[in-house]
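Please predict the structure of the following assembly.
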Amino acid sequence: MVILWTDALIYFLLAVIGIFGFYLRDKVHIKRPLYQLGNSVTAMVSLVVLMFFLVIGLLDSIHYKSVTNPNHDIVSLLDEMLTPLREHNEKTYSAPLSAFLYSKEMMALPDGSQQWNYPRLSFGGAHLQNPAEERVTDVAIKAVVGLTGGAVLVFLLMLLCGLLFKAKRQQLFGRQSALAVWFSVLVLTALSCCLMYLSLFYHVFGTDKVGEDVFYQTLKSIRTGLVIGTLTTLVMLPMAISFGIVAGYFRGWLDDIIQYLYTTLNSIPSVLLIAASILTVQVYMANHEQAYTSVLVRSDTRLLFLCLILGITSWTGLCRLLRAETLKLREMEYVQAAQALGVTHITILWRHILPNVMHIVLISVVLDFSALVLAEAVLSYINIGVDPTTYSWGNMINGARLEMAREPVVWWSLAASFIFMFTLVLAANLFADKVRDAFDPRQAQR
Amino acid sequence: MQTILSVKHLSISFGVGHKVVDDISFTINAGETFALVGESGSGKSVTALSVLRLLPQQAKLQAEAIDLQNENLLRQPEIEFCKIRGKRIGFIFQDPMSSLNPVMSIGDQIEEALTEHSIAVANTKQRVLELLKQVELPNPEQKIKAYPHQLSGGQRQRVMIAIALASEPNLLIADEPTTALDVTIQAQILVLLKKIQQQTNMALWLISHDLALVSTMADRIAVMQQGKIVETGLCHDLFNHPQHVYTQKLLAALPAMQSCLRKPGAETPVLLEVKQFCCYYPIRKGIFQRVVDYVKAVDDVSFKLQRGKTLALVGESGCGKTTLGKGLLNLIAGNKGQVLLDGIDLATLTGKQLRQKRSDMQIVFQDPFSSMNPRMLVGDIIAEGLLSLHPDVDAYNRQQKVARLLGQVGLPLESSGRYPHEFSGGQRQRICIARALAVEPKLIICDEPTSALDVSVQAQIIVLLKKLQQEQGLSYLFITHNLAVVAEIADEVAVMYKGKIIEFGNVEQVLTQPQHSYTQKLLAAVPELKRQ
């Protein structure tokens, strides 16, 4: 078992969420919003989608030294599960579900003559005798088999749940939101079974320039996206929240200092700061080569520092919003009533100000999440984003820059990363929207 | 007499089921003032908006007919309706602060009303000036170029009236036209409205919650309760012989000035003594933020408050009465002067001592909607003071205390597990009183505790405050602009004007024989219920 820095932080985040959930488990007034959340179809469906992403991301966060591999590379659990896919490398580009390469080559025919044509792929559709005729039917059959397999799996699970929890059957299947959960689980499982089954025989999303399977790349990118989205937030939130509400609440010289700090930080182009820190890390790693022997460890350190520096440069926006909101809240009469009751400033901040700015935090965190995933793509473009060897949607989109200019166009890298990113960001947005509504007592009444 | 507006069997509902307005019918005649009276939420504003077709989208309207001069408004297409709205029916909104466009000069805004309805006048500018003169705006020639923020609230309301009058409407709807204004300004605006109505012979439809105000203005009155008109009648009849129970209840709830004629209680020891109290706000200018001058919000105020008595602090908005209340509690910075509570100077206390002393002085705020944290349970809100000032009380005793307090202010026990927004304005004010009582104070500063409430609820809160005073010997510093409430509750009165106390004395003496000219003006402006 190898624990990388980002892995450790992810486990830490999970532990914090777990402890928080444990702490809230029998708070009466938390149950009502949770119940409302549980009854919302949108919330539950987006939660299921998020969970799928999360599970993939977590599987990809359990690293260990491979036993089977002769080099003893560090691999993740997800790598192990996708092993045939991981090693099915072609020569160069190939279209999704194709049996041929995307570029012509000089091939030696059995009779000794040479031909300028599209060669067969070494893995994609290799089992077909005559791809031109058989391929479409074969793909269709395999897709249906995969879909049915997934569906049967979910139905078995439903049956099992129904039999095991007889008392809770009404809760498990009676409500509309519960049915929506089962339905989305069904769709997602069937879809992933179908994709997995197909990927044993084909490259579902094609291959990239060096012949690597794009489906594998997108799955590996999920972890990078989640890490950048969550860890950056983890770095940014404490600063933004504490500075924002302290500046707004206490005013005076404290406010002046904090305002000065974020105005200064805002006036430095963030790209410069990011470039400086990434380059520093690279130099550091080059000077301490013996500590960074593995490619994976190097790219992980770079990812970690990218999250740190992104967090340090992106807290100012939220901080400004929170300061403004706190300026408004501190004049509210309930804050003055608390002061009249002799409540200390710290308690007022914690009990009266913080809960009433949480909706802003939630909304901007989710919006930032999508912005950060995109920022990573932009930074990769000027080569100061994640390590080029790290799988990330940013790197894929960055690569697509040249592929889109190619003739004929290679669109699948961009499309695959777009679909996955879109689904993740949309699900996160919808879910956060519902969470905000559920935890606002004024909204909940309706 | 010619009928201007006739509404027949009007019902309005939002969403499914609940009817906001339930089958009401009434007529308004030319030259008369018709008043629609009711408490908040009774559906009076919605009725007015429905006549103008300004209801929100989700509202469902059903009516047999809404006739304006025998022309059914319901059949008019929207494009025709634009020529009715603002031209034949004028409208004055409640809040003059937000109903004028802040980036247009008032002259332009009145002119817009003229050109929009293509009213042929020889000289537009001349007509705008005439209108401004008609609404008695001082120096109309200069004010014509002024922007709304340069005018006071009363002046803005005059401009609103000028805009409504620009097209010489047959019917003028005034929705709570003076609620946001001070009493003296209110009296001026009402006189103005009455005068203009007599000049132009238009019908005036007044919507108000204030029965006393309506009794001085209206010819006919309709009383609304929960979407229904429960009683209609001539002003004189309705106030002297109210038929419906609800009308009787409303009239009974009205605080009466006569109630100040009661025996003053015995002298008690002084609880709070304020000497030369000042709250100055510095005005800073220049690059180094030098203090060049001060805004004197409270200027050299001294008074004494006896134990178990109520001192009413009366004044118009901006006179510094709220600042004084908060300043006494040390909630705002920049105070000078001595505040002696039980003979102890609060200025000498610091940190923990001051925090402990806070349990003797509590405050109840005006707005029951912003004075409680919307994300805290009512039980936690009430227990907050206990938690900070008496941390030694354990959870069980705290809960017991909260339950007892809820009982004292007349709320059900299960309220403690609910959120503030689930309660009505009056109930929230009860919660705020319970929160203040939790730390067993000797003095409660009530900052306009009833001005956001309906009359009947206001009466209940006053009864509750009096009851608590008798039971626990509390002293109140009662800040208000409503002189009738003062008559009901106060033992002594201090009248504030521009940061200074200009008159101080026994309630009967101040309200019946005011010495200072400002107090006399204030009292003259209070609309009194016309009864014979």
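The first helix of chain A runs from residue 5 to 23. The two ends of chain A are 50 Å apart (CA to CA).
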